[in-house]
Structures are given as C-alpha cells and as structure tokens.
C-alpha cells in the first residue's frame, strides 16, 4: 500500500518533535492550514525550569513562505496590549517588518519556534517575575514602526520618507550613488541594509508606512 508523500511542513516538524516533544500538529482541511498545539516548557539559561505555557500556532498552507499566528491558550499572560498580546491570546512576537522579511526567505517551523516563539514566552515569564522585559521592547502601533526605522534601520523620519518614496516609485538605487538619507555617503556604505530589508516587505506595507509617516501618527 502506497503512502502519500509528506509535505515540507511535516518533514520539518520532525525537528520540532525532537526539540519540543510536547508539541504536536494536525492539518485543518477546512482552513487549509496546520495547527500546532501543546505545551511549551520554558527553562532558564542554566536549564532550571521556569514554567509551562499551553500554546497554539496556526501555520498557513503557503509554508514555508508564511507568518504563523501564535496564540497563548493557558492565559498566564495578562490580556493587555502592554504585554504584546490581544484579548483572545494572539501574540505579537516581533515587529511586522521583520516577520515579513523572514517569510519571504522561507521559514523553518522548528527555528521559528526556537527563535521567535520560545524567547517571547521566556520574556513574558521574566516580566512576571521582575516586572520588566529582559531586552528591548518595541512601542505599540505605528510608534513601534517608527522605532524600528529609527533604531534598527537608522533612518530619521525624513530619511525614511525619502527611502520609501524611492522604493515605491521603483527608482534604480545604485550602490555607489549618494545615500537617500542625505548623508553624502555612498549607498553601499550607508543604508544599503535598510533598503534591502524594506524591499522584501512588499509595496502594500511600504505604502502604509509612507502614508503614516506623512500623516505623522
């Protein structure tokens, strides 16, 4: 009797099973997605047990080119926007732009859990214990986007508008041309990283960012 070939997600889940054995998955044919459910044990740097979350992760059929949706089911985290979680437990595990860039390259479900999901929940337990997060926290709504442009892309609001306009208008951006930020430095030695990252987020997101910067919200 022949067996149906495993999907890429199912093949990749073998690594999840090895690293996070309390998680399992099933395919939802109605919504064309995989759903990962189970317990996620959190431990400290020395292996000491911190706590356990009941979680669910919805993975679209477009895997690996997708952004999984993460939900905390156990209700340990206060349902408050200041805790980066919605009233129904949907977790804001990272800023949208980084998640989009990640999805364009293609994700590994095991790495996604290890590098995005696990640190999110570990940081929540840390905050519950010591009243603040261990690392940098992004602000909410568009303030967080501006913070991302300012701190990670090193672009002021004016420079961000120049860069966004150029990308939306599909201008040819030469590596040896003066950087769009106005520094006078060659692009390759200035904001090339920012340009390359922003190219991956899609025209729709670029338009949204530009409109918000111009509106000043």
From TrEMBL:
Signal peptide: none annotated. It comes from the Bacteria. This is SEC-C metal-binding domain-containing protein. It comes from Chitinophaga horti.
């Amino acid at each position: 009797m022949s067996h149906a070939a495993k999907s890429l997600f199912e093949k990749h889940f073998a690594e999840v099973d090895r690293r996070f054995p309390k998680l399992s998955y099933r395919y939802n044919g109605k919504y064309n997605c995989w759903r990962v459910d189970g317990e996620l044990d959190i431990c400290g740097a020395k292996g000491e047990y911190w706590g356990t979350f009941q979680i669910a992760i919805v993975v679209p059929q477009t895997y690996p080119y997708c952004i999984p949706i993460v939900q905390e089911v156990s209700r340990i985290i206060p349902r408050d926007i200041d805790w980066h979680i919605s009233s129904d437990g949907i977790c804001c595990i990272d800023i949208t732009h980084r998640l989009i860039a990640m999805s364009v390259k293609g994700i590994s479900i095991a790495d996604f859990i290890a590098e995005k999901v696990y640190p999110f929940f570990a940081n929540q337990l840390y905050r519950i214990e010591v009243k603040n997060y261990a690392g940098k926290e992004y602000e909410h709504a568009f303030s967080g986007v501006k913070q991302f442009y300012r701190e990670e892309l090193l672009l002021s609001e004016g420079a961000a508008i120049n860069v966004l306009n150029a990308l939306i208008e599909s201008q040819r951006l030469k590596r040896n041309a003066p950087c769009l930020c106005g520094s006078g430095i060659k692009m390759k030695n200035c904001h090339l990283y920012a340009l390359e990252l922003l190219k991956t987020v899609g025209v729709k997101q670029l338009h949204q960012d530009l409109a918000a910067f111009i509106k000043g919200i």
